[in-house]
Amino acid sequence: MKVAPARMNHLSIAALATLLLHIFPLSLSFTPPHRGGCRLFLDTADTNEWDALLPRGMFYGVTTNPTLLERANEPCTVENLHKLASKALQYTDEFMCQSWGATAEDLFQTGMAISEYDRERVVIKVPVTATGAEAASKLTKAGVRICFTACYNKKQALIAASSGVEYIAPYLGRITDNGKDGYDECRQMQNIVDGLGSGTRILVASLRDADTIAKLAMEGLDTFTFNPDVARELFDEPLTDNAAEEFEEAAARGSTSD
To answer: Against a cut of 0.85, is the pTM above it?
Structure first.
């Protein structure tokens, strides 16, 4: 009879552990010790692509916006963004999603509601407009992490740095589409924040090929978001595939030799 309390205590602990796993799913997120300052983000709201690519371990986070949500047939609601954050953060360190609203107050209230899920790991994106800057100022004071988005001009890096936001996202490909050199514009933005001594990261977006990422990294940029096609292109090297196949063939021969 004297062992019953101890057994009950053991069962209670097991039941509590099971309950906690249901409430807080086991996270697969892991930050490699030698990653350095590099932050790569997967730019999609397609959770099937998350399942395929995030386990590769190279992504610091996931980025989304209302357009990407629409393409993935995901509702643009606070409730659904909390659901998506829960899934993304099982694999990564950050989840970026965009606030919406016609006024600075609307952007602020929506941003507060979205980030309530996890203020340390959810980053709120707002357009780098006058309205967006006002909302970002209020959100920052409330402890919300901010990324200015829809950046098309190097002068906007001044807004980000002086506002003290964590990220600004220039659209390299779209900048080039509109007649400017998107590559050079992003490089100059990095020079601006470095020259000002700002900790704002230049989160290069609208990237259309893996080679551009490599070239920008050589220039000192270290933060990028790109779509699943570009993510797969990073692994597209036939010589590596051939070498890996040769290794496997040699291993198979070795395992059957006398």
So the answer is: yes
